[in-house]
Amino acid sequence: MTALGEEKLRKYTELRREFHAHAETGWTEFWTTARIAGILERLGYDVLVGRDVLDLDSVMGRPSDQEIAGFVERALGQGADPGWIKKMDGYTGAVALLDTGKPGPVLAFRFDIDAVDVSEAQDEKHRPFREGFASMNENAMHSCGHDAHAVIGLALAELLMEKKDSLGGVIKLIFQPAEEGVRGGKAITARGFLDDVDFFLGAHIGMGIPTGSVSPACGDFLCTTKFDLTYKGKAAHAGGAPNEGRNALLAAASATLALAGIPPHKDGATRINVGVLQAGSGRNVIPSRAVMKVETRGLTMELNSYVYDRAMEIVSGAASMYGVEMTMAKMGEAVDALSDEDLAGIVRDRAATISGLERIAPPVSLGGSEDVSWMMRAVQKRGGKAVYFVLGTDIAAGHHNEYFDIDEKVLDYGPALFAELAVVLAAGK
């Protein structure tokens, strides 16, 4: 027996596979956003997209305008609605609004929509390839389940419209771009969509929780700051005039080694990683340019600030030591967050009423970063409640793996649970 009915489950399974085939990474989700917006509009929602849902000053890690133009053309070539593409005006993401016209709370639901920078497996043991819905886009794959997240959000949108007469207040459905790299959540939050929200709900599928289970709360969000550094020196002949050069590679290498030496903090977990260091043009040339891609993490905002502030001292000092210029660009950022226990309790209680959900799993430790935290904290700061839970689904391989795939039963009980929570919260029960 299904929670949505066999017809709806088939429809949303097909839609998930359509999204899977059109995987688009952060800030390039033009086909995805257009498809989502078109469905939401047909359901009767007021729909905002692109620039209208983002604080542009808070956008991080977006490709260049020239690169974006290429992704827009790709989306149009794959059948994206030109009208919605025009409304986006170079930016992705969608927010759907439903004002019931009756008294009640403001509810917000968040679903991330971007893919991962992974090239999908192309062999018969991988079901999406075998059944013809593997990603058609190079180095872009839904290997974290955001295709399912988007579809769960759209299924919820349909269920809410069916239940509209029994709902009160205002409902906001947020389809967020660029979660990977924690680049998009802050921009939507800063635009003000969470300023009047009483209850906020988000979820992730998988994460080690099996099909038929739900974990009512997810915690241990690591705060993080992701940044790119560029050192600019002066090229010179390495044999004939090494004294005339200013070595950007040595500045970057010195910074890398010193960053690795930042001591851990007594108050909790901290992390730092230099993931990329690129420099030089030839063995006989003093390197004039070096690029580093770095991230810091901490269990709390204070702990992340400790690592980040020390890192800034180190990378600036390396620039001074080698006489080179340094520029820094922030590429992503997330804060810590905790689910409200009473709201997590409602998730646990209502899950027991949903067909297909048979087990309550223990709380999940995220062990990483998620920019839904910006939204959760914004709601909680003004006295609202927030929860982030896990919808279990068996997966074929780990998250961000080229063989990742899901048990599509989650497309049945996932939307049903969200809809049940919406009805309960809107009624003030």
From TrEMBL:
Q: What is this protein called?
A: Indole-3-acetyl-aspartic acid hydrolase
Q: What GO MF annotations does this protein's record show?
A: dipeptidase activity; para-aminobenzoyl-glutamate hydrolase activity
InterPro entries cross-referenced by the UniProt entry: Amidohydrolase, Bact_exopeptidase_dim_dom, Peptidase_M20, Peptidase_M20/M20A_hydrolases, Peptidase_M20_dimer
Q: Which UniProt keywords apply?
A: Hydrolase
Q: Where is the Peptidase M20 dimerisation domain?
A: 227-300
> What Enzyme Commission number(s) apply to this enzyme?
3.5.1.-
In its UniProt record, which GO terms are filed under biological process?
folic acid catabolic process
Its gene is iaaH_5
Q: Name one Pfam family in it.
A: Peptidase_M20
SUPFAM superfamilies reported in the protein's UniProt record: Bacterial exopeptidase dimerisation domain (SSF55031), Zn-dependent exopeptidases (SSF53187)
Q: Name one GO cellular component term.
A: cytoplasm
Natural source organism: bioreactor metagenome
What EC class is this? hydrolase
